[in-house]
Structure prediction request, 393 residues.
Amino acid sequence: MSAAPHTRRAGIVSVLLAASLALVPPTTAHADGIRAKQWALEAMHTQEAWQTTKGKGVTVAVLDTGVEDDHPDLVGNVLEGKDMVGFGAGRGDRAWARHGTAMAGIIAGHGHGYANGDGVMGIAPEARILPVRVILEDGDSARGKARNTRGNALAEGIRWAADHGADVINLSLGDDSKSAHPEPAEDEAVQYALKKGVSVIASAGNGGEKGDHISYPAAYPGVIAATAVDRYGTRASFSTRRWYATVAAPGDDVVIADPDHKYYEGWGTSAAAAFVSGAVALVKAAHPDLTPAQIKKLLEDTARDAPVGGRDDSRGYGFVDPAAALKAAARLDPEGLKSATYGDRYFGSGPDAPRTEDDTADWAAPLAGGVGGVLLVAAVVLWRGRRERYEEF
Prediction:
C-alpha cells in the first residue's frame, strides 16, 4: 500500500518525534525473504557476537509509541509496560505502536516460522523489551491535544523504566526543531538512569539536510547518541552532525516489523539508535557489572572505520561493532565510573569538525538485499526527498 504525499510535521506529545522514520518502497518480498534483506546483521558482525551471547537476561526499555506484544517476531519477548501518555489511539488502531514495534524488532526480534527463518531478527534476539509509551504516532487524531505542550511523559518514562528493571533505555525519538532546548526534568531523568547503571541510547536526529539542529535527548551528557550510515558505511545525508555523536549504525534501507504483521523498509537515526541499543544489550548480557560510562567508552574504542582524526560529528568514533566490544569488555574490570559531561559545551552548539565526504567503510561492499532504516514506522508519514512513500513488502 502507499501513503499519499504529505508534508512531514513536527513532534507529538510535545515536539518529540520518534526520531523520524521514513518508509521507502522496497521490492516485493515474502516474510521468508526478509532475513536476506537485513544487511545490518552482517555489517554488525552479529554471528560472531552471538557466539558469546544473544542478550538473554537483559531488559531493554523502548520509550516510544508502544509495542505490539503479539507480533510473531516479538511474542514472548515483550514485558508488561507503562503508558505515560494516557490518551490517543489504543491497541488495534492503525495509529498505535507502529514506530515502537519497529524499534523493538530491530533490538530483540527473534523471527518466526520454521527454525525461526522468517521475519525480522534483532541484534539481541533473546533480550526482553519493556515498552513505555511516551509519544503518539504521527497519524494519531489526538495529537492536537499534545500541541504546544512538552509535558513530563519522557522524563517520567525514563525514571519509571530505570526503576522497573531496565538495563538499557532506547530513545529512538527526539526534538531537533529550531526551538529545541534542554529540559531540566529530562536531563535529570537521564542522569538518574545512568547513576542506577542503566545505559541510555538516543537517535542523533534527522536534521542533516535541514541545518543540523541539536537534538534532545541525544545531546544530554552520558547519552550514547547514534548517527546513521548506509550499507556502504557512508553517512546518511539526513543524519545530524553534532558534537555529541558517539557511534554510527545502520539507518538506511532497514527492514522493520509492523503491527499489521507485514514488513516495511525505512530510514532514519531512530533505526540507528535501536541497532546500538541491541549492541549495548549484548555487552550488558555478557558483562552486567560494567557501568554506562564504561560501555560508552567500549563502543567508542572498538568502533570500526573510524573517521580521520579518530572521530567527527558525522559518525562519532565510527561504525558500532558489538563483537569487538564484547572481546574488549572481557579485559575490563567494572569500575565506579561516572558519565562524562560536556561542561561549558553542553548547552551550546558544540564544536563542529570540518565537514568532509565520508570514506566508504571497508566492510561496505554491497551486501545482498536491502533493509530499511526506521524512525517512525508509520507514526510519522514517511517521506524522503520531494515525496513520501510508504509501501509494504
Remarks:
- The chain has one domain: 22-333.
- DSSP finds nine helices and twelve strands in the chain.
- The CA atoms of residues 169 and 200 lie 5 Å apart.
- The radius of gyration is 18 Å.
